[in-house]
Amino acid sequence: MPAYLQQHLQQVKQSPVAITLKSLQCGIEKEGLRVDLSGRVSHKDHPLSLGSSLTHGSITTDYSEALLEYITPVFQSPTAALDFMQQLHSYSASKLQGLGEYIWPASMPCYLNGEDDIRIADFGSSNTGKLKHTYRVGLAWRYGKTMQSIAGLHFNFSPQDHFWPAYQQLLNNEQTLCDFRSSQYFGLIRNFRRHSWILLYLFGASPALDSSFVKGREIDLEEGPDGCLVGPYATSLRMSDLGYNNKAQSVLNLCFNQLDTYAKSLEHAISTPLSQYENIGVKVDGAYRQLNANLLQIENEYYSDIRPKRVARPGQKPVHALKESGVEYVEVRSIDLNPFLPLGIDAQQSEFINVFLCWCLFEQSPEVSDQECDLIKANQAVVVRQGRKPGLMLGTCSGPKRLQSLGFEIIFKLRLVSDVMPNKIEVLEAIDAMEARLKDSSLTPSAQVLDAMVSGNLSHQALSFKLAQQHQTYHLEQSLSLHRQQELSEQVTASIAHQQRIESEQTEPFDDFLAAYLAQ
């Protein structure tokens, strides 16, 4: 029995902390590849009708020019964040329809006719825009362009500000508030890493991909309908070695035990040259190939399933923002787009992630040993490729255990945590639904993707494009008030004017700007 957790939650319920948990802060970032009327990746510029990808706060691009990214502000509930996300989709659907484009609903991309099919995102002529573009050029040289067409969803989580002093008082902690908050977030992160395999099982939705994505590579997948490739028991090929899993970064051993060790690890990585990147060159024949030849160009290049975050000042490096002011929130990065959902995620999934993260915060969280770190990596690797395999065993510090049994243990603890959540009924409904997926793997999104492909004799390309068309129709049907349409149009106009102003006022040469940024 989880005696510590039960006792701790009882203390939380009987303290002022309970009041601060009435709402939890949430933000969502969702990517989606723009495709044309034939279901191929768009070669057009980021639509001017959606504003400037450099300066628009809610509609931008990620790695490639065609990879749209929608970003919500911070809200007090997942429902509010999803409502805002829906407004962004409804607004942009009419613009994309006029251009003859759809948003690809799957994490793994459409058919790609080689790397030349993918345009690196362009953010204009300002130094900030050039920095963002050059970073992506570096990614293309280091890892290839195809990886820049993968899409995912990031879930940002934080309790409200007044939670922290109340919680610190409950724990009789004598650190500074900033240090206390950061140490608690790192405890959450350690527990997340221990148990995040369950999110890959429950929400993984990329068990198949178009064969063009791995053209010329040795792969161990089976042939699916119409020549696509599938992993029969796979949950998230996006999070496997075929997607966002970088072998060059395997030498990185980032320590998630404390903020200072994490920051030191990152600083070492962004300042240590790697011979294979030195061979690429930094500025060749007057053109930049990468920002530098270090193991990481910047912190964002490190691929992890969760990140501690702090909003940085303009021009400030993320790691310096963390060191200066501590952790502000966490960003969960391991979530696939559910291709059956118009927004790629729904309220039920969001409520489950919320309670899961609260459990990670309230549960005991000893530091991760090297041995446990190896177990964490091995469990993630096996779940993304074999997660729905009957009787699958995962490693624990006390020996191998069945995935299903470990999952039920987590579900039991989440039910305990639901008692302190702001909307207990919805949270329990979400827990019930996910428990059903543990009992019956055919209910998982990854299984449903494969079932839809087989039953309809549809390839990954055909199924995803069919869903893209359905979702656009759905978004166009959702009502958007004239006032909200006007607000969104004004944001588009303002973002374009903002970019033009930045570019017209700029005088510093890019070489000097880059040198100053990297010298921080």
Description of the molecule:
The model has no long low-confidence stretch (mean pLDDT 95). The protein is built from 18 helices and 14 strands. The longest helix is centred in the C-terminal third of the chain and has 24 residues, at 482-505. The termini are far apart. The chain is globular, with a radius of gyration of 23 Å. By secondary structure, the chain is an alpha+beta fold. Helix 3 crosses helix 16 (460-477), helix 6 (177-195) crosses helix 11 and helix 7 packs parallel to helix 12. The strands form 4 sheets. Strands 1, 2, 3, 4, 5, 11 and 12 form a 7-stranded antiparallel sheet that branches. A 3-stranded antiparallel sheet has the order 6-8-7, with no helix packed on it. A two-stranded antiparallel sheet has the order 9-10. It has helices spanning 3-13, 17-20, 78-99, 127-143, 163-170, 177-195, 197-203, 259-269, 275-278, 318-325, 347-362, 370-386, 403-417, 424-439, 445-455, 460-477, 482-505, 510-518; strands at 24-35, 59-61, 67-71, 102-103, 153-159, 208-209, 222-223, 229-230, 283-284, 287-288, 306-309, 329-335, 393-394, 401-402.
